[in-house]
Amino acid sequence: MSGIYIPIAALTERLNLSRFTENARMPLSNRFANMRPLSEFFDFRRVSKPANFGEVQSRCNYNLSYFSSNYAVIFVLLSIYSLLSNMLLLFVIIMAVGGMWGIGRLGGADLVLGSTTVTSSQLYTGLFAATAILGLFASPFSTILWLCGASAVIIIGHASFMDKPIENAFSEEAV
To answer: Are 110 and 103 in contact (CB under 8 A)?
Structure first.
């Protein structure tokens, strides 16, 4: 039985997602090299209500590429805030990473506690069970949905209300 084939390349070409995949391959230092200054990012003189949906699309297309590093920083800051406001989820993540690191430090050897010997697979099973149970109470799905919603409102809101600079606005007009 053959697997299901999903033509991801065809979907990304139709949705014009190449600008996101190009930036994903670059090093982190290059990614934030084109960070715009805060005075330009918070230039309230360029904030205006768009006249129609076409102008919203035009502004979003321009601002999402122009301020992409600033928007990435906003997403990271919102992620940190969401983890700091959900301490149980932060604890579960630290417990899972720390447990995997600790079990990996054993190097495949059994853990001997007094007269009890625990194998690595038993340790991994116990870690998985503990993090799964605590993870259900930590509400990770609501945190992810909040993060997506808050990021979308802030980023799309800024991108749609921030007008393009005057020198770029005239470059798109046909002569």
So the answer is: no
**Burial of 111 (C-beta count, 10 Å sphere; 0-12/13-18/19+):** middle
Q: What is the pLDDT of residues 13-56, one digit of tens each?
A: 666 666 556 655 666 666 667 778 788 888 888 888 988 998 88
Sign of CA dihedral 39, 34, 19, 83: negative
Q: Which amino acid is at 106?
A: L
Using an 8 Å Cβ cutoff, are 89 and 124 in contact?
no
> Could you give the angle at which helices 140-161 and 53-66 cross, rounded to 10 degrees?
110
Asked if 123 and 13 touch (Cβ cutoff 8 Å), the reply is no
Enumerate residues 6+ apart whose C-beta is below 8 A from 110. Answer: 117, 118, 119, 120
pTM for the structure as a whole: 0.72
140 within 8 A of 89, measured Cβ to Cβ: yes
Burial class (CB in 10 A: 0-12, 13-18, 19+), 71: buried
